[in-house]
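Good day; I would like, with your permission, to put a structural problem before you. The record follows directly beneath this note:
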Amino acid sequence: MSHDNSQDEYIHLFWLLGNPTRFEILRRLSQEPMFLGQLSRELAVHQQAILRHLQELIEKGFLETYEDESIRGPPRKYYRLAKTVRVSVQITPQGIRIVRVVPSMRQPRTIEGIIQRSYPELHQLVSMVQRLRSIPNELDRKRAAIDLIQQLEAKANEAQEVSKFLDSVISSLQKEYL
């Protein structure tokens, strides 16, 4: 049986997704970006094995990385989905046929995704909320929480001012052009 390069690509795609660990990594990262230690703990798989899977998924364009500040210690390297891929397969008595593989750079629109893409400074603040729980000393945790609350309140006030301004611009445009 001969097959062309696109078939080789499909075979590799199914091999990639057929691994239960890689599939579970993709499933979890479709919910939220995570760092290596989180994935290792949640999947109960050694970090070196997770890292090999992550590298494979990055090489094939499924994942990308970014660094985010940490309350304690150096910035953490996070992994997230790089794209959306839809695959349609027909399996019939006559054979298996890949109907289409549609890559899409459009990510699902969630408030978290919007903040992450459009407001990186706010995204860093919001991501600090989860990290508060990892501060072992209660007094340090409370101090960090108070500081974070103040920063988030300032951002919320800015957002309200921006929203008011945008409402007035929209209203002005509607009056003038509609």
